[in-house]
Task: structure prediction
Amino acid sequence: MTDTFRTNIGRAGPTHSGQGAQHVYYGVRSPSWDPRPLATDQLEGLAAEFVEPTTYGQAGRALRERGTVLLRGEPGSGRTATARMLLHHNRRLFGTLREVLPETEEGKPGLGSYMLGEREGLLLDLTELGPAPWESVQRDLPTFHQSVRQRESRLVVVLPSGEAQRTTDPFLEGLAVEVPRADPAEVLDRALKLVGDPALPVRPVPAELHRFLEQVERLNDVALLAQSIGRHRTREPSRSAGEWCRSAVAALTRPPQVPEQMGAATARQKALLLSVAMLDGARPKSVDAVCEVLLRKAAHQEVSVPLLDRTDLSAQFEGIGAVLDADGRVRLKEPDRAQAVRRHFWDYTPWLKEKMQGWITEAVTGADLDAQERSALLVSLASELGRAQESGMPLWRIARRLADGPAPGLRETAKQAMGWGLTHPSWGRHFSQELYDWARSGDISEPLRGVLIEVCLGPLAARFPEQALVRLHHLARRLHPADTGVRALLSLIADNPRLYAFALHRLMDGMSRSHRERDTRLFLHLSTPEILLTGRAGGSPPLLHSRVVRTGLAKCWGELLSSGPPEEWTPPLRDWFTTIHQSPTGHAPLFLDLLTAACHGHPDAYGLLYRAARHHPIRPLLRTRLNEARALSF
Result:
């Protein structure tokens, strides 16, 4: 038997989207949302659990034959998981799988084909998109669909919830497929079989479990039930599978009686209980330190007690129903009780909730917590904000303060928190905008810049590398070429022709507008022979062999040759001449052809190019290329 339990059914957590009632289940801590929905390991894990809806075959045919399919369905129907599986099961059609964002290069709602590659499987998840942005995206979808088809790619769109699922465009309606909810009992059985315990799934099905599955409306809630069954199995191995299931249903549908415990509790017991619930697996001294910070923030004055007369921590923990686990960390005895405690304080003590941000900030920065404990506090905060459908700004503000902190451990926690916000379905756009503003700011400290770079290269690049590129580009414009920000930009694009071409697109645009000096410097630094002629990971050919890269290089060189002073670009161009002249691998024709293409539309550029090759051994070959292009005759 395995000691771990996992489930990836849909997007876990009791969030609510669209119209209708929301059934909130208690006692389950919302797990982290999936930061890499199209990663191979994530897709393979989901495939093992996935139950195909009845229209799955229809959606697959639409994707293969028409190139685009729009999925609509009720919240919790599993349409997002269906979208991911459509791409996974048709992977032979694509070179890569990735997500696209419903926003333009300038960050406005809409779609742009500027960053599309060849033979890609694309996911466009619009489930959290509001009515106004949806109008912009809907206008762009037909053109975007055509661009996708021209590149032999495929696009799966998950439509917004509610009335927005009905498009006003007849063409788009023809691409839409309804996704009905799969049978919850079958979904649960599939998830429980993966545990590897012969007792699961349980037969006969307990009456309580049967009633739950009959009444459940969202497959997300089936995922929560499966997780809860797994936790009860791990914590109570001597009980039967039927008892695990009944306890899990009870934990989800009947919250533990926290208010009864609160009635007779002292202020310190309340603070200790909340501290244990928020940390959920911390060292005793850390729980005590966090408790003291909470009492201080709540302006509670404790009666002074001589040190030897104080009740020891083990007795205090026993008084609130907490114990030490096998690793010596403090947890509440009852499975799933920590979430119920957090929920109670969050929902029913608004006067204390107002103090929580300051409490958590001070506890994380000043209570001598280890990395696991700092993370636990912020996970608890993020989970409650998400459950209550509140803004993620408290999490951002804490992360922002930690990012500027003196200790590397605090900055590491800041990166974690920013990563959660970036991948959250509702907060991601705001966190991304904050990073964008940060990158464009001319006044950020060295620690902040380091965190920005690592967040861009980490969680943001893992899911939305184009956004990471834009932010690193803004940062690199203000830095010396040898700075870590420029190196970070290069590390992001150096092994990906599509991203490299997107960077060239942005550099050419900046060179022709308001960032000429800075983007020219960046272009010359990022397009050296060493970068463009070095073989890539996995034995892939160098960037110069990519058609989209050469097209971008030609446009940038065309901008330089037509409007840049020769002394700016002649030295690096001669470096290129020397490299390709000495190269035995046939790179010279590729580079000279793109230079010839750069001259198109700029008659004077041919002469400038020829003069740059004066006294260089490559001059005869260059002259032949120019003559073949019938641009000049020498």
Confidence is low (pLDDT under 50) at residues 1-33. The longest strand covers residues 120-125. The CA atoms of residues 560 and 568 lie 9 Å apart. The radius of gyration is 29 Å.
